[in-house]
């Protein structure tokens, strides 16, 4: 490679400088005591560009998907890392250069790749029906072997997907094992169509429901309860003419309300209802449940646009310090008239990348785990420079029933990536287990994997897994029990 990466924040520093490596490390070094009962694999995926951007600049979310697998067994941890061999990446490797332009805009790609799938497969990774699925919400998933990480190829569930897109945030029903999933812009770029699927544990489609949103907009995550599906539309809209003119896929609309489409899981889509909340940015769902026709959705919400790379039409992006952010509980009363909803803060601090005990997905629950930001904590700007985007300096355990939180602050030069929750055993009480997540050591250009007792996060990690390599900032991942992988 002869062209250097840009010297911009998206491609420099410990968090965002591309790592660009694949490999394996057997038996990672561990400080502290690793519980023998942790048995399974933590899969996670990062956008890690193989080549510098074709247009000379780019955004973090446009990197090639690379999967890290941390396998826990008998107090030891092994590490494996492989790129998802997408059509896009294979074309780049053949050309030894990037051939793709603006994020999610095929009109800006090199003509040689116009007929290839545009997915980077870089946002989330989940195991279902024996396959590891690498997910990006503008495409069908890519399937991989969950043991070797070898790419199988694009996966449409053996011809069962009828949509152009598939969510990066599916849910697994803890009772049936069904994959609950959707696609937005489901009939192609800038279309307002949304499809909802339920796919059983063997990969057979059980349900397909189509609805039309008031307009085309980002639906990054969604919420599911026992009886309802909720689609949160962000005020980040899509316009086909803008794409054809080489523009950004999304554009912030400061005058638009947040929209929440509510669909009955057993309905046909004709009774979908749309509820509104003031303009704001909602990211990821912690959990949701319903009770007697009332729906409760817990998710972080910020008062304005935090995606500086998707500004409003005049280029305006609000300074981060002018925005407020909290974990919010949204309450929707399906028995009431009108389209309003209630919003109640659950935290006094900004947080994101929320996770709950997956065994309680869609059911009443108590425990949530997030990465959080406390700007009053010390920060070593002299050694590190300005705080980077996605800088979260605390890990937190939130009890949503009491409102109490426990937090842990590492030090003045560290920040966290998304955590996961692992129960101590299959029948352990809710929240009784371990929280596992990557920690970026910015001054040392290093990455550690930390293990916490979930109920005592404030006491710090019980084990620190030392990686001999630095990992780029990732997005999402999931835990898969060893018994599930053995039975695939």
What does this entry show, briefly?
The protein is mainly beta and 488 residues long. Helices cover 6% and strands 38% of the residues. The strands form 8 sheets. Strands 2, 29, 30, 31, 32 and 33 form a 6-stranded antiparallel beta sheet that branches. Strands 1-5-4-3-34 form a 5-stranded antiparallel beta sheet.
Q: What key phrases describe this protein's structure?
A:
6% helix, five-stranded antiparallel β-sheet, mainly beta, 3 domains, 488 residues
Explain what you see.
This protein starts with 12 loop residues before the first helix and ends with a helix. The model has no long low-confidence stretch (mean pLDDT 96). The chain contains five helices and 34 strands. It folds into three domains: 1-155, no CATH class; 168-342, no CATH class; 347-471, no CATH class. The longest helix is centred in the first third of the chain and has 9 residues, at 87-95. It is mainly beta and 488 residues long.
Topology:
Elements: H1 13-16, E1 23-25, E2 29-32, E3 40-47, E4 65-73, E5 76-83, H2 87-95, E6 124-128, E7 131-135, E8 142-144, E9 151-154, E10 171-172, E11 179-184, E12 193-199, E13 205-212, E14 223-224, E15 228-233, E16 236-237, H3 240-244, E17 251-252, E18 258-264, E19 273-277, E20 281-282, E21 287-291, E22 294-302, E23 325-333, E24 342-345, E25 350-356, E26 367-373, H4 381-384, E27 394-399, E28 405-409, E29 414-416, E30 420-423, E31 433-441, E32 446-453, E33 463-466, E34 477-481, H5 482-486
